Amino acid sequence: LNDLFEFVPYDEGxxxxxxxxxxxxxxxxxxxxxxxxxxxxxGKAAVMGGWDPQTTGSGGVILxxxxxxxxxxxxxxxxxxxxxxDGPTSRHVSATVRTADGKSVICLHNHRCTDxxxxxxxxxxxxxxxxxxxxxxxxxxxxxxxxxxAIDGGIERGVVIFGGAAQDQAMSNEAFFLDANIWRWxxxxxxxxxxxxxxxxxxxxxxERTVILFGGATPGSSGLVGLNDLWILQIDPNKGxxxxxxxxxxxxxxxxxxxxxxxxNAATLSLVDTLSLPKSCGIGRDEKAYLLQGGWDxxxxxxxxxxxxxxxxC
Length: 314
Hints:
Elements: E1 5-8, E2 20-23, E3 37-41, E4 44-52, E5 61-70, E6 76-77, E7 93-98, E8 104-109, E9 116-122, E10 128-134, E11 136-137, E12 147-152, E13 157-162, E14 175-179, E15 184-187, E16 202-207, E17 210-220, E18 223-236, E19 241-248, E20 268-272, E21 287-297, E22 301-312
């Protein structure tokens, strides 16, 4: 599919007004795809690569195009950025980070990034360009279907990646941090208490040194299992340490959780303004709200549901 939806905030002054996901009419749009990634830069969302399955049995086409969506007008520019310099790619990840000079760039990591990452930046004149940024340190092995989130703690800034699957389908539960000041990878020492290996999980920044992880798919006795566990990872980049805490175990019920999404991978998890949600969600000013949308319980069901996760610091 290549349809586009906008999340319309709840209007407390007009209770009857529609809110939530609304379809956007598009005169032009990038072609259909899945297993893609998108990040923002300069007031635009960049959709990069992916896989167009095309007709059943054809094998589809891996894509290398980059389309830019103006976040004010919700109009697409299909020729505003050069294609991916590494060639067609899917099952990759990206995050918007600040470099040592304070410039915002999109950092993209795919299965070919064994000695570099790809950076998409926008110049003052508006031109968008790619560069291959060499990396050092504990470079992650080749993988796809991993998840990523930016971390920005002022001096400490970079990208956290977790999990994913190698070409032989072996899944990982490793966590890495890429320091965007010096472009050096560190494999985080997380001890023994870690999430099970998985692919297609959802990850989002919680605070300056913490990311939140939900779901994914992991191998089971009768095929892939869609997970619905919830974890946080607190990192100490200087010591190369990470600490995982499980907030919600995988399973159909939890005495401490009133509502629990069914297990899934390939969902989106996004931080949203608490004021964009109805008061019935019960979110306080000192809490954060994350929107979980869609996903897939492998080979069983595709979801179009929506859940709100409330997180409060202890």
